[in-house]
Design goal:
With about 180 residues, this protein is α/β, with parallel strands linked by helices. It has a single domain, classed as 3-Layer(aba) Sandwich (Rossmann fold). Helix content is about 35%, strand content about 15%.
């Protein structure tokens, strides 16, 4: 059975290291994982006054998340947390109360940084939010990816064998988590 994994990427930047690394790791996934990029850049800022009248972008976003079997969150770190666009997407997808698109879904977190800390703060802030949203978050291996630019080759692929091995194991563990919760 194939599983659909929504990739939700917190960076809106065209040449985002987070997006590039996420795309570079996808070929390492088990054959039963199919990735669907669910974009967040067109979502309006969450405003509870508008819950009863969702925009087309909100409806499309929530439908894509609901159809997915699992979610891979990939995020840069901004000010020791997740970017505002990602937090907004989490809020939009969780509302109205009692109708969260996230509820019960398996999830994995990949945090990416051009610096040396690998997005540790963003990873843990996101993990806290996903626990509240009742998502089943992959515990191990944790994926704090530092020095992102050095991990990519000039064609956008992964440049280092140990990075390929790490991502391969990360995706194998995520696959096992998905199989635990998706029947």
């Amino acid at each position: 059975m194939a599983y659909t994994v929504a990739t939700v990427i917190g960076s809106l930047r065209k040449d985002s290291f987070t997006r590039k690394l996420t795309e570079a790791m996808e070929p390492l996934a088990p054959k039963d994982m199919k990735f669907v990029d669910v974009k967040i850049g067109d979502l309006p800022l969450f405003n509870q006054d508008n819950e009863g009248h969702p925009t087309a972008a909100v409806t499309a976003f929530k439908t894509a998340i609901e159809k997915a079997d699992a979610v891979l969150f990939a995020t840069p770190e901004y000010n020791r947390s997740v970017p505002g666009a990602l937090k907004n997407a989490l809020d939009v997808g969780s509302r109205p109360y009692g109708k969260s698109a996230w509820n019960g879904k398996p999830a994995a977190i990949l945090s990416v940084s051009p610096g040396g800390f690998g997005g540790f703060g963003a990873n843990h802030h996101l993990r806290q939010t996903l626990a509240f949203l009742n998502m089943h978050v992959l515990a191990q291996p944790e994926a704090y990816i530092s020095n992102a630019a050095a991990l990519l080759d000039d064609k956008g692929g992964l440049a280092k064998q140990d990075t390929k091995e790490f991502f391969g194991q990360f995706l194998q563990n995520f696959d096992a988590l998905i199989k635990r919760y998706v029947k």
